[in-house]
Amino acid sequence: MTGKWARVGLIALSVSLGLGSIAEAAGVLTIGRREDGTTFDPIATAQNVDFWVFSNVYDVLVRVDKTGTKLEPGLAERWEISEDGLTYTFHLRDAKFSDGSPITAEDAAFTLLRIRDSELSLWSDSYAVIDTAEATDAKTLVVKLKTPSAPFLSTMAMPAVSILSKAGVEAMGEEAHAEKPVASGAFTVEEWRRGDRVILKKNPEFWEADRVSLDGVEWISIPDDNSRMLSVQAGELDAAIFVPFSRVDELKKDANLKVMVEPSTREDHLLLNHEHEPLNDPKVREAIDLAIDKQAIVDTVTFGQAQVANSYIPAGALYHNDNNLLRPHDPEKAKALLAEAGVSDVSLDYVVNAGNEVDEQIAVLLQQQLGQAGITVNLQKMDPSMTWDMLVNGEYDLSVMYWTNDILDPDQKTTFVLGHDVNMNYMTRYENETVKQLVADARLEMDPAKREAMYTEIQELSKADTHWIDLYYSPFINVTRANIENFNQNPLGRFFLEDTVKN
Amino acid sequence: MIAALGLPVRRRPMLAIGSALLLAFLLAALLAPWIAPFDPIAQDGSIRLHPPSLAHPFGTDNFGRDVLSRVIWGARIDLQIAVLGVLFPFLIGTAVGTLAGFFGGWIDALFMRLIDVILAFPFLVLMLSIIAILGPGLTSFYIAMALVGWVSYARLIRAQILVLKTQDFAVAAQSLGFSRTRIMFRHLLPNALAGSLVFVMSDAVLVLLNGAAISYLGLGVQPPLAEWGVMVAEGQAFITTAWWITLFPGLAIVTLAFGFSLLGDALGDLLGVKE
């Protein structure tokens, strides 16, 4: 519980003391981020902080390219898909784990079955479609599916199915392996000082080791946005991610720094609880959509750096519908709709993540905008540890959340948001049987053109129902010192540190 | 215990400055609707993050709200925090301290052990837990303050009463056959209060800072209401680019706290209370 004065002073202190000793070794890239990771067990987390480092430490069978739009070979140098779409045969390249042992089809099979079956796995549902995964020889993996699955190949690229060493996991035990894993990627975990930093070292056994120029990487957690930026400005860090929107213009003017604004798949949206009156009435939900001035949010909160959203599938992502309905800001029409729905004195509880700069600002703006349409909004600032449970339990009317895609294919997000899955459609309690059926059908449809048409329809139907309110798509914004090159992040969040150069 | 009013002249400036500061804030709070140049919660996207100027002497914040107006309106809430945050603990503490000191025995033992238990927890942690249970908001803050803050007053008053009740005037009152209530509240309490009154002033400073801290953590005043702690918290994100959002409410907190402590010191001298 640091007081505010102490906190302001600490910015200066942490800059001068806490980071004094790093960044001395040439070729070690130090990166500041908001929070430390939670594990190195790929199946036991769904958080970006973990996934983004997994991509440095592990390789996957199939990779997503730098543009975030195509799949390309990873540890599998090629693959075949049977006519009926049920059998996938992956041919692994010659590659080694960091302990020098070869990466075999046996390891890949172990990885896939583990994410499907392990009690630790948060992703069992996504991989339940796998019937069998067998190594027919040391380099050939045959995966049989229970049903055809259009998104299956994309799910092979997710960091959660990073290829693990079967022998390594079994010898060390899952818990020890999750602390200091056997690496299959560009770097190995040298040391993990929990809560402080992850220290990675170049993995000389990596099959693309000559592509890697850095000797090592340190992911350092500096929660305070201002001190993280100050550290880069002072040259004590080589790079920092999560540049606050408010700082972009100022940092861009600094000749010692490079600011990268890169397209992402992040979408911020306003959740509506369909179980609570009067939000069960589609007219009321539409009125709320009309009452919100999304451009004002983009201007105020993101300093113009985001783009107003018209669909739950982000712009640039597969099957995004450019022509999806974007309701204009029209408070008068909103009032008329509310009157038509026969509701007055609408009062809604809005759960806000306390301490989140962006969330809090959106909340204050929405409160005023909805107020102009005659809707009273009561802000309830809550500790982020509590807000998620409140959403799950339905103890809210409105709340802003965001999503970044983990895979290329829209199926994952669609299932979560509209598939009428176990999570009550991202806690909105939205129900529409037609949409539900379409989501299930689109998963099985192997013809890309037909699939695209289905996703277009899903986007139109869910927008017509105002299942939630799309706010904006924002980019990933990172900053490095001028001497750092190729510090890039693709729209799914993967950093290509194997190409990063420190001059 | 109450000294004669012949106070040294060189001490008077503190009294004067302290009361002047408090009076100024009180006036600002009372007259806020008339003296604040703008609506404190009206947003204007066209004048976001403007530095101090003639139109906006304290600048504008990230929603284009006038910082000066927000600081003035904030005085209402922060003074309320300082007063109510002290009043309830003072009343409860005084009642408990008087009873415990006067009656002694098991009543005394019971209350003193309860106080020990409360003091065993770190103050902020205990308060945050109470607010977390009750839900964020100022009402919860006042309840938490009342539940936790009374212990200091109870101890102060009890100690005074213990000393006073053995003194001649108290013994005399007893032998005259006055009722216990009369002795407690008419004879002992007025003489025991001086120390507490001085403590009220320094406690007001702590309560004010606590209130600001609680709001800073998102558990106190809810947006869009203007409160200094909230303003400092909201401005922190822009501290390197728009310092004025944070500086002015911060200065307001410091100045009001300064006023309270000056007045507290002066009162202490006036009432002859030893530190």
Automatic annotation (TrEMBL), chain A:
Leader sequence segment: 1-25
Annotated keywords: Signal, Transport
Main location: periplasm
Species per Swiss-Prot/TrEMBL record: Cereibacter johrii
The protein's name: Peptide/nickel transport system substrate-binding protein
Lineage summary: Bacteria, Pseudomonadati, Pseudomonadota, Alphaproteobacteria, Rhodobacterales
Gene3D superfamilies the record matches: Dipeptide-binding Protein, Domain 1, Dipeptide-binding Protein, Domain 3, Periplasmic binding protein-like II
Xref: PANTHER family: PERIPLASMIC BINDING COMPONENT OF ABC TRANSPORTER (PTHR30290), PERIPLASMIC OLIGOPEPTIDE-BINDING PROTEIN-RELATED (PTHR30290:SF10)
Protein family according to the UniProt entry: Belongs to the bacterial solute-binding protein 5 family.
Subcellular location: Periplasm
Domain of life: Bacteria
Pfam family, one: SBP_bac_5
Domain called Solute-binding protein family: residue spans: 70-417
Keyword Transmembrane helix attached: no
